[in-house]
Amino acid sequence: MSKQEKRIRKELEKHWRAGRYWEWLALLERENLRRNYGREEQEAWNNLIKRAYRMPANLQDFWSRFPEIKNPPATPEIQCLRILGDFAAGRDVADRLASLKNLPFPAEAFRQMALSWKEDLFPEKKIRGILDTFIHHPEKVTAKYYAELAGLLGESPLAASIVSMGGKLDPFRRLNRKGKGNKRISPIRLVKELNNADFQLKGISETLFLPLQEILFYPFLFQLASFFQQNVDQNARVFLLPVASAIPFLFLRAAGDRREDFQKYFLGASRTLSGPDRSFLARVSSQGSIEEKASLLARLRSLLQKETGHQYLDPFRDLY
After folding, report:
1. HSE-up (13 A, CA, CB side) for residue 65
2. Structural domain count, the chain
3. Do 300 and 312 meet the contact criterion of CB atoms below 8 Å apart?
4. Domain boundary among 84, 117, 150
């Protein structure tokens, strides 16, 4: 056996032991060794098929990785998975599904589900209509829209997160309710509500895909942008800063490229350090610029003098 053959065999064994069947099949095909590993090849495909039916993510992985194999076996189960992929992509595959016979479980169960599928089982048009409001009319969105969207998702894990998001929207809408100037806001109560909502929304964001985050958070960001645009020209710095500092997650998300600038400003100007992300405080302590550290030192020193910043004593000593 040549060194090349030994290397290939060793690599095949490594992929097999790790359960990397796609890599194993691709290498087998690339080196033209299928005739030497017939039994193992069949076992690899069986493992991939079983894995695909276990979870939706596995099924998506099968559809995305399948094109890597140029000449796959034409077994009924593999054909079924390929057709189901076309079905999920919105193609008309009823005739092809109907032609499949003698499929084992769970392939046959999936085939029957696809054949009996009706559009009203998944209200795509209704969901698109709600999301269209989020994107084009964010000022109209209330908690009711989030609840309605969650209801259309059935028992999806996303439903609970979306309902929870809707429950946090009201204090942001109250920022823009008509009233006599800034008196429409009870500073202490509303700022506290905003701060609690912002903290919980940051946690919820970790359960959502980024594209969905962009849509679902847009009504919040719209309300914030409207509020600051209406008040920024009225020399309301003393009033605006506590609001901005109370919602670091959403405010800094809306800030985009100017995120770092606003964080520096909060550290230098706010009365407490409850607003800025603690991750930013940790970064400044360890690797921040001279300007950032100077700003943070001044704020920590002020808090310690007022006996309100004992929790920041260690960062203060490290910086000093």
Report:
1. 19
2. 2
3. yes
4. 117
**Residue 43 domain-assigned (yes or no):** yes
Q: Give the residues of the chain that fall short of pLDDT 70.
A: 1, 118-122, 179-187, 233-239, 256-320
Is there a single domain that holds both residue 10 and residue 98?
yes
Q: Is the pTM of this model over 0.90?
A: no
What is residue 121's DSSP assignment? G
Say if 279 falls within a structural domain: no
223-255 exposure pattern, b = at least 16 Cβ within 10 A, e = fewer: bbebbbeebeeeeeeeebbbbbbbbbbbbbbbe
Q: What is the pLDDT of residue 320?
A: 38
Asked whether 230 and 176 are in contact (CB, 8 A), the reply is yes
Question: Does the residue 316 lie in any domain?
Answer: no
Question: What 3 state SS string does 292-307 have?
Answer: HHHHHHHHHHHHHHCC
pLDDT tens digits, 31-88: 999 888 999 999 999 999 999 988 888 888 999 999 999 999 989 999 999 999 988 8
Asked whether residue 259 is domain-assigned, the answer is: no
Answer with the one of 117, 132, 147 that is the final residue of a domain: 117
> What is the chain's length?
320
Give the pLDDT confidence score for residue 177 in this predicted structure. Answer: 81
Alpha carbon distance 71, 73 (integer Å): 7
> Same domain, yes or no, for 204 and 224?
yes
Asked whether residue 131 falls in the same domain as residue 243, the answer is yes
Dist. CA 255–CA 261, nearest whole Å: 9
Domain of residue 147, residue span: 124-247
Distance CA 301, CA 146 (A): 44
